[in-house]
Write a structure and sequence with these properties.
Elements lengths: L2 H11 L5 E4 L4 H10 L6 H12 L8 E6 L1 H4 L9 H7 L3 E5 L4 E3 L7 E3 L5 H11 L3 E8 L8 H21 L2 E8 L7 H21 L8 E2 L16 H15 L6 E4 L6 H15 L6 E6 L1 H11 L6 H18 L12
Parallel strand pairs: 1-2, 1-10, 2-3, 3-6, 6-7, 7-8, 8-9, 9-10
Antiparallel strand pairs: 4-5
Helix pairs in contact: 6-7, 7-8, 8-9, 9-10, 10-11, 10-12, 11-12
The structure holds 1,3-dihydroxyacetonephosphate.
């Protein structure tokens, strides 16, 4: 493994307080998001939407990397420019989602394990040739009565570590995403306990599989009360719980922690990331950044509605969210930014 390009990519992704834009929805997920706002679900509308994103002027000032999906990494603008080329020209490093989805875990009702290791070495070398320099694999952990189980945590952590080792071998920075889901009535404390257990296991497996921590990115959930928990918390409490959990479980050699948004509103995700950086930034070994899909894209998607006439308004909204999150990386985001 050649460590230097991996470390350089990991550094470039988050330089100047930038973060990642996840635009790697599978066709099924993308269609679901389109259906919810009345956009027809075709390959052409998915392509047109991704063209809207990659041609947004100035996006590269706040976005260091964009995570693509297998369909998208092969697509082009109407003019014929491949999306990968457009991103690179905008200063945005192309990345790729490489897992093949979370499937029911045998013997563990209500729990899932992420698949995609078979044939992964060959797929990674193809994606590298297509221009990707980092990759993503998402594991999902649900909280509920009697879950998560050790079986679910261990199976997912091991798959994440095997994926990460293959990525580094192929010259791609692995984004390691163990997502503890927000759905449920659980408390903030329960989310913290589960997130810590999952992260401890993930780093144990990453060590066993000889993953170079300096050349990877962690993409965790924020520590939050469940979405149905009556006792919701202020941004400061969420910031404290999240950072304290990460400090206990994430080695200092990891260069950056880039949160997923997980269904939080765009404004809450920015405010919470901001609170973490405002309170802790100068004392942390890793950068605290973002790798949001919904919390960057959703306002733009709702404005676009699939119509050419709305492209420019949607692009402004996308840029605005990216800038808000860039500001949150240095504790300079405020509600006033939403009014301008
Ligand atoms: P959300 O920010 O919408 O949770 O998506 C992030 C992601 O990439 C999930 O894998």
């Amino acid at each position: 493994m050649n460590s230097r390009p991996l470390i350089e990519t990991a550094t470039r992704l988050f330089a100047n307080n930038k973060g990642l834009l996840a635009m790697d929805e599978s066709n099924g997920t993308c269609n679901k998001r389109f259906a919810a706002v009345g956009i027809p679900q075709t390959e052409e509308t998915r392509r047109a939407y991704r063209e809207l994103i990659v041609t947004t002027q100035g996006l590269g000032e706040s976005i260091g990397g964009a995570i693509l999906y297998d369909e998208t990494i092969r697509q082009q603008e109407r003019s014929g420019t491949p999306f990968v080329k457009a991103l690179i020209e905008a200063g945005i490093i192309p990345g790729i989602k490489v897992d093949t989805g979370a499937k029911e875990l045998a013997g563990h009702p209500g729990e899932k394990v992420t698949e995609g290791l078979d044939g992964l070495r060959d797929r990674l070398s193809e994606y590298y040739r297509l221009g990707a320099r980092f990759a993503k694999w998402r594991a999902v952990i649900a909280i509920g009565k009697g879950i998560p189980s050790r079986g679910c945590i261990e199976a997912n952590a091991q798959a994440l570590a095997r994926y990460a080792a293959l990525c580094q071998e192929a010259g791609l920075v692995p984004v390691v995403e163990p997502e503890v889901l927000m759905e449920g009535g659980h408390s903030l404390e329960r989310c913290s306990e589960v997130t810590e257990e999952v992260l401890q296991q993930v780093f144990c497996e990453l060590y066993t599989q000889r993953v170079m921590l300096e050349g990877m990115i962690l993409k965790p959930n924020m520590v939050l009360p469940g979405s149905a928990c009556p006792n919701q918390k202020a941004g400061e409490e969420i910031a404290d719980a999240t950072v304290n959990c990460l400090l206990r479980a994430v080695p200092a050699a990891v260069p950056a922690v880039a949160f997923l948004s997980g269904g939080q509103s765009a404004e809450l995700a920015s405010a919470r990331l901001n609170a973490m950086n405002l309170r802790f930034k100068s004392r942390l070994p890793w950068a605290l950044a973002f790798s949001f899909a919904r919390a960057i894209q959703q306002p733009a998607l709702e404005l676009w509605k699939g119509l050419d006439a709305n492209v420019s308004a949607a692009q402004s909204a996308l840029c605005h969210r990216a800038r808000c999150n860039q500001a949150a990386r240095s504790g300079q985001y405020s509600a006033a930014m939403e009014k301008n």
